[in-house]
Amino acid sequence: MASGDQNAQVEFIGPDGGPLARLRRRIEVVHRIRPGFQLQPIDQERALPAITHPDFMSARARWPYLKRRWNYYREAISIAKRLSPRRVLEIGTSYIPLFPISDRLDYKADFRPTFLHDATVVPWPIADQAYDLVVALQVWEHLGNRQLEAFAELPRVARYALLSLPYRWRSRSNPSHSGIDDQVVLRWAGGREPVETVEVPRFGRRRRKIYLFDFTSTR
């Protein structure tokens, strides 16, 4: 779903879907929404502004790390903007956050986080339900074996969480990024299923998947 395209048709594709579906996943965005779920904007009048494509390209010109990352940034921004959050916490934003005036949590002082803290150490120094949304793009795979403990903090501090992860990568040289699929994410989330996912087309052998979790419902 492209940024701002709130009326795009959502297509449901099975776990495999056959050769045609596998080919489409290489070149198209696959967006799934849990049946019956409808995202409700939190506060459209006071929602935080998100970055734009020119903002991202300006940052990419300074930091090569961002090369080829707009495709999943764009999809994450699309979901986040539909949510219309007023209070956002971003974890491990590194070079550019989705929301310029969000709060940030990072263990590196160089990035000037609001909370200088390692996400694997719980509880986080954050009050209960302090945020509408937590964003963590390409972060959870870096948490060693503490993904489950860190995830348990998300429903405590926020109403929603938006995570992106390397999806089904195969890399002997980078094992922390390898073998992550929906079952791994489900285990890291303590059995909680996402309400939306977006599978982003891959370049070469690399795909990424975005997961939206709703903590306002017990379902």
Termini separation comes to 25 Å
Percentage of residues assigned to helices: 10-25%
Report mean pLDDT, rounded to a whole number.
88
Number of strands: 8
Supply the number of structural domains.
1
Determine the structural class based on helices, strands and strand pairing.
alpha/beta
Question: Largest sheet, described in full?
Answer: 8 strands, mixed
The CATH C-level class name: Alpha Beta
Shape: globular
The CATH superfamily is identified as: Vaccinia Virus protein VP39
Reading the helices and strands in chain order gives: HEHHEEEEHHEHEE
Rg, Cα atoms, Å: 17 Å
| CATH fold name | Rossmann fold
> What topology, given as strand order, has the largest sheet?
1-7-8-6-5-2-3-4
Gross CATH architecture: 3-Layer(aba) Sandwich
Number of helices: 6
Structure description:
This protein has 219 residues and is of the alpha/beta class. It has a single domain (43-214), classed as 3-Layer(aba) Sandwich (Rossmann fold), CATH 3.40.50.150. It contains six helices and eight strands, in the order αβααββββααβαββ. The chain has helices at residues 18-27, 53-62, 70-83, 147-151, 154-157, 182-188; strands at residues 30-33, 88-91, 103-106, 115-116, 131-137, 158-167, 196-203, 206-214. Strands 1-7-8-6-5-2-3-4 form an eight-stranded mixed beta sheet. β7 (196-203) and β8 (206-214) form a beta hairpin. The longest helix is centred in the middle third of the chain and has 14 residues, at 70-83. The radius of gyration is 17 Å and the shape is globular. The two termini are 25 Å apart.
